[in-house]
# Entry
Amino acid sequence: MKTIREIAEHVGVSKSAVYALIKNHGIPTVKRDGLTYVDEKGMTIILAHYTNAQYETVNDSIKDSRIENSIIKVLEKQLDEKQEVIRGLLQALTHEQQLRAVPLIADTSQPSTKKSFWDRLKKSK
# Structure
């Protein structure tokens, strides 16, 4: 037989949680010297309850981890796709800038044959 405190420490929960479980499941207890004791059958029920709860918690966290990993993979794939689009747009922009730069260089290398208004007026006299 163990006290509620000993069981709580063993399972890793509070004394009040163990006491609530005892009351809810009708587990028989014995009071001796101001301490509440639980027999072996009651301890088995309590241990089974908290062991199963811990197993479910671990199982849930594994499921959550798998879901998070699959979400991360999807997001990484989307990120890679967007990076490819950005690379393509950057290449297109660079190419467009190069095409626009070529006529400007050609225009500056040719002398201007267009005469101003005043030059044309002087020649007509």
Summary: The mean pLDDT is 81.
